[in-house]
Structures are given as structure tokens and as C-alpha cells.
Prior knowledge:
alpha+beta
Amino acid sequence: MKLFSPIADTEMKFPKFHIWYYHMINTIREYGAINGSTTETYESLHKFCIKIPYRMSNRQNATSQIINTVRHDSILNYLKRITSSTSAKKHRQTLTLSGIKESFLLSDFNEFINEYKVTYHLAQEDEKAFDVLIEALNQYFDLIEGINDDDVKAILIKWYTNASIGIDTVCANTKYYNAPTFSNVAINMNEEEAENYHT
């Protein structure tokens, strides 16, 4: 408090500073030293409860206008919260594929994988994913009635670098911003090792 005593007689020419001084001294007394989180909280409260409402006022009798604006906003937020039903909200799941890397026929799958392994450094999980992928494709095509081997071999596969599903992103690159990455999309669990898996 002695630190601020020379500016205490500024006749409130620095309102933000005086408001900070008024609230921070009590906060320091009650909770101890302030940190960045305390300061950021104060800054955001000052912005939404003082700065923005002040700019919305006509600067005559500003204090009462600020109080009315903040009260009005809090009432609207409260009404919005109690009237909106969370169960009524429907979340749409979006799927966006981008960055097509290559396309190949399923008959050339092994050739593509071998070239891909030579061209890119693959993590162990990526190599395992290729094995799981071909098994999953075989199981999928077994479920389809009326499809023969020639139809399966003629299927065109497009290889994308990433996919956005809803708000999540699935990466198909072994490096993302020059750091190793692996998207945990599918897990092929070995029943003998079930006790070793952690989630």
C-alpha cells in the first residue's frame, strides 16, 4: 500500500488503476500473492462489466448506465440458460476429407503400402494400422452380398492426409508440424494383453 501512496491523490484520473487497487489490496490480504490467472480474471471482468458497457453508454451519468447494462445482460443470460433445453440441441456430425495424397486400386494395395513405407518414416502404430486396415476391408467385403473378387480388386481407394470429424481431426501423417503423431482411431486389442491396456 505504501507503494501506491504517491498516486493516491490523483483524484481518480486513472479509474481502471483505482478499481484494480481497490479490489487487489483486499484480494492480496485474503488470499496472498496474486498470479497471472488473477490478473487475467480481473482484466476479463473489467472488459465485460466496465469497458464495453461504458462504450455503449452516452457518457453522461455513465455509472448508472453501466449498472443497468450489466444487469440487463445478466438477466438475459440467466433467462437464456433456464429456457434453453440441453436435450433439444442436436449436434450434427460433419466429415470433411482434405489433402488427397494418392489414389490406387485395391489390387495394388500391397504395392502402395511398400512404396509408402519406403517414402515415409512410419511409427510402429502406423505399420500395425496397415495390417488392421486390410483385415477390416476383407471383413467388410465379406459382408456384402453379390460382390466377387474382380469387383473388390477394381475398387478405387483415395488416400487423404487428414479428416475432420465433428470437431476432432484424424491425421494420416506420421509427422504433424515436424512432430510424430498418431491418431487413436481404432484399437485392435489382443485378448491376452487385455490387462496391460490403460485408458
